[in-house]
Amino acid sequence: MGNRGPTIADKLDRLFKTVRPGGREYSYEEVATRIRATGVMISHTYVWQLRKGHRDNPTIRHIEALARFFGVSPVYFLDNEAARQIDEQLELLAALSDKSVRHVAMRVAGLSAPSLEAINGMIEHARRIDRLTEAEDDPSRQPAAPTPDDMQ
């Protein structure tokens, strides 16, 4: 893959893994059947081939149909920067589908900036304990976490 970024297969796989009705992954047949119902001819085998990278040059009609099915812009498949931004939104939606995460998010609404910073610091500490820190948790993109001295 080199510096080219994610492939169509990578992006389609990401959609299958994050756009999950009732917590389950769509089947290839389900995707193909619903796309065919819109008038675009596609087989479940072709959807599988695209996802696995065995085919990598879908028609614009197939790109548009897959994008429509998964609820993203067709640009997702064509522009890596747009795909990155859409992936971030999909991650947020996936996280908010978790009842516990949604409950925490609802409870912080309306808190002051210092309170939000304190909570963010606690969350970052918990993520480090659970070894969940990731590259996108770049401190330059987050409010500064308070130190123990700040909390006294």
TrEMBL record:
InterPro entries xref list: Cro/C1-type_HTH (IPR001387), Lambda_DNA-bd_dom_sf (IPR010982)
Record-linked SUPFAM superfamilies: lambda repressor-like DNA-binding domains
PROSITE patterns according to UniProt: HTH_CROC1
Region of interest (Disordered), residue spans: 132-152
Ranges where the HTH cro/C1-type domain occurs: 42-77
Name of the protein in its database record: Nucleoid-associated protein EspR
